[in-house]
Design a protein that fits this description.
The chain is of the alpha/beta class. It contains twelve helices and eleven strands.
Length: 313
């Protein structure tokens, strides 16, 4: 079944959600007859993947800047994004981030079905925010990327289904070479909530361990300024899976721990059989392939369009 999808999303920082979004639509393009248009902007979105209608939103919402100015900018972006998206002749709208989720599902659902991906446990919202999110979610089919995320949604009375993020294919090495330092890797956004500062404190206390920090974000300059010499910042990397495979340990930062973040999934996939850590069970490896992940999303989109899901329009 041929499908036309509009992804309505804007992000100014490359991270796990952005790379997974690109990976999903590359799979949908290659395995199914899916034509995608991106409304907004996503770092790393290949020009060959689909049409891009740029709608600039500025930086993501933050407590470090005046909320009134940010609110005005967000309202202007959402107004333009909604107007642009509603002009498209599509079967499914796909929303990714809270800025879009808080406003767009209801008006977009009058034109086509709405798919909503939740990448992590819900944060604390200002008074009335969770009620607004719940109301918008009732006009969409919500996908959680793990059981922990689904539980977070359920606690706020938001119905969802779980489509687990896939285990990425990675190479492995058998042993660390003689003389090489032990490498601890952090791969993710450099944001205050990730508490990378604690990792740097640990690195300072154990100078014989090499700490590799892959990622970018608002806190990078401040973190680099206080980092010990054994902490190396390598910026945003496309080869994170290879970095994970080469590391002896993976640090999962954050004040709120999602039970199965994409970094943990990649770490599990990188564990070689025969090592002193258990490899991924064959059953989980078979269920968590990229192909199964892509096919599950396609099946859900088809159900939405055919009215078998009960959400969306």
């Amino acid at each position: 079944m041929s499908l036309r999808v509009a992804v309505v999303a804007h992000s100014d920082v490359a991270g796990g959600a952005e790379s997974q979004l690109v990976r999903l639509y590359e799979g949908l393009r290659d395995r199914h007859d899916v034509d995608v248009t991106l409304v907004g902007g996503v770092p790393g979105w290949p020009s060959a993947l689909g049409r891009v209608v740029r709608v600039d939103a500025g930086p993501k919402l933050t407590r470090r800047q005046p909320l009134l100015a940010q609110g005005r900018r967000a309202v202007d972006y959402l107004r333009r994004a909604r107007r642009t998206a509603r002009r498209l002749d599509v079967d499914v709208y796909h929303v990714q981030y809270f800025r879009e989720k808080l406003v767009l599902p209801r008006p977009l659902s009058h034109r086509a079905s709405v798919l909503w991906t939740e990448h992590g446990p819900l944060p604390e919202f200002p008074l009335g925010g969770i009620g607004l999110l719940r109301a918008q979610a009732s006009h969409a089919s919500v996908v959680a990327v793990s059981a922990g995320v689904a539980a977070s949604l359920d606690a706020q009375r938001i119905a969802s289904r779980t489509i687990w993020n896939p285990l990425p294919p990675v190479s492995t090495r058998d042993t660390r070479q003689p003389g090489e330092p032990v490498t601890v890797l952090y791969a993710g956004r450099l944001h205050a909530a990730k508490r990378v500062d604690l990792l740097l404190e640990a690195a300072r206390a154990v100078p014989e361990v090499r700490v590799l920090i892959a990622g970018d974000g608002a806190e990078r300059a401040a973190l680099e300024a206080t980092a010990p010499s054994n902490a190396v910042f390598v910026g945003h990397r496309a080869d994170v899976a290879e970095l994970i495979a080469a590391a002896e340990a993976l640090e999962l930062g954050g004040e709120v721990f999602a039970p199965t973040p994409s970094a943990l999934a990649a770490a599990l996939a990188a564990i070689a059989p025969g090592a002193d850590r258990a490899p991924v069970p064959d059953r989980i490896a078979a269920e968590r392939t990229t192909e199964a992940w892509v096919d599950a999303h396609h099946a859900l989109m088809v159900d939405l369009v055919l009215g078998r899901d009960g959400a969306g329009r």
